Amino acid sequence: MTYDLWYWDGIPGRGEFVRLALEAGGIPYRERAREPGMDEDALVKDMLSDRKHPPFAPPYLVAGKMTLAQTANILLFLGEKHGLAPASVEGRLWVNQLQLTIADMVAEAHDTHHPISSSDYYEDQKEEAARRARDFREARIPKYLGYFERVLAGQDAWLAGGKRWSYADLSLFHLVDGLLYAFPRRMGTQAARFPKVMALHRRVAELPALQAYFSSGRRLPFGEGIFRHYRELDAE
After folding, report:
1. Which of 1, 61, 142, 158 is 20 to 30 Å from 40 by CA-CA measure?
2. 206 vs 81: CA distance, rounded Å
3. Residue 39 has pLDDT above 90, yes or no
4. Is 83 left (phi over 0), alpha (psi -120 to 50) or beta?
5. 28/186 Cα distance (integer angstroms)
6. Residue 72 in contact with residue 58, Cβ under 8 Å?
């Protein structure tokens, strides 16, 4: 089966977590909103079309007659269907739990530049963003990365143990990548505190299954979306 992935064109966003799983797993898919002739209206039209289980927002994955939304939910499905998570129920739920924790941090990272309203410009909430970003840098980054460091302390290489990555490892890689882009000064002083997290980041970056994707130009650069770099929001 070839899946249809729908997400906004032009930004990595939450869709990138799904893309990494599809690419690393060698799973056929079409990025529908990025196909020739498509535009933002095409995505909205498809999202609002008559479906048994309509999505609230992208990303969503069309798998035959099923429409699956919410990043963690999509990955839970792909993990079981394509062996991107442990075979046991306990193992699959553990990887899903890790993914949900990553999703929590992703939401907090986004709120550093849009703490009041997602529909207002950053420039309209700069004072509040500065306060939110300071707390995120000083308290939340070490808290979350410290958690993943503890998880990895009990494993040889990957979050769920074993000799093979899971989709949670791919997602943690993208999360760390986003933090390195958005908060380079803070991550410059924090990275040494979390050597296992940073080692996982390097391992995923070197996965043979992802090299074609990374070199293809299809991986969208950071800029807009969740992870944004504002010099005034970063500090050591």
Report:
1. 1
2. 24
3. no
4. left
5. 38
6. no
Domains, the chain: 3-82 (3.40.30.10), 89-233 (1.20.1050.10)
Nearby residues of 35 by Cβ (< 8 Å), 6 or more positions away: none
Pairwise CA distance, residues 168 & 165, whole Å:
8
The two beta strands, 29-31 and 60-63, are: unpaired
Contact 225, 12 (CB under 8 A): yes
Nearest to 23 by CA among 144, 167, 158, 135: 167
pLDDT in tens, 82-128: 999 999 999 999 999 999 999 999 999 999 999 999 999 999 999 99
Q: What is the pLDDT of residue 138?
A: 98
